[in-house]
Amino acid sequence: MRNARPRRPLALVLSRREDRRLHACLTLKDLGYDTLGFSLVEDAEAWLEEDTPVVAVVDRAGGRGPDGVIATLRERGVPLMPTGRPWTSGSEAFAEPSPSSSRRSASG
What is the CA radius of gyration of the chain? Predict the structure, then answer.
């Protein structure tokens, strides 16, 4: 394909708070990730049935707890960061992705 951009690694963001979700998505985008933001645990769980992110930001506050999402991500070896914790672009968990970190497969 001509003019096809290489795929960027995918990051999942789960937070009921729009401000936290937006901040995490924008920061991850600046670091070179494509982001997928969810406000509902159920939606994130449904998406995880089909795909696996390279990194994830999960907010434990509010609504139904994200324990199932966190357990799934940990089982798949996905680095996690809570939204309430301050982090910067220099954070080890979210260093700029390497080309080899672009995995997009469903794990089971």
Answer: 13
- The pTM assigned to this predicted structure is 0.74
- As to burial, measured by CB atoms within 10 angstroms (0-12 exposed, 13-18 middle, 19+ buried), residue 95 is middle
Specify the number of domains making up the chain. Answer: 1
Nearest to 23 by CA among 47, 63, 59: 59
**Those residues with Cβ within 8 angstroms of residue 10's Cβ, 6 or more apart along the chain or in another chain:** 33, 34, 35, 36, 51, 53, 54, 102, 104
pLDDT digits (tens, 9 = 90+) for 29-73: 999 999 999 999 999 999 999 999 999 999 876 556 788 999 999
Is 100 contained in some domain? no
What CATH number corresponds to the domain at position 66?
3.40.50.2300
Q: What residues make up the domain containing 52?
A: 10-88
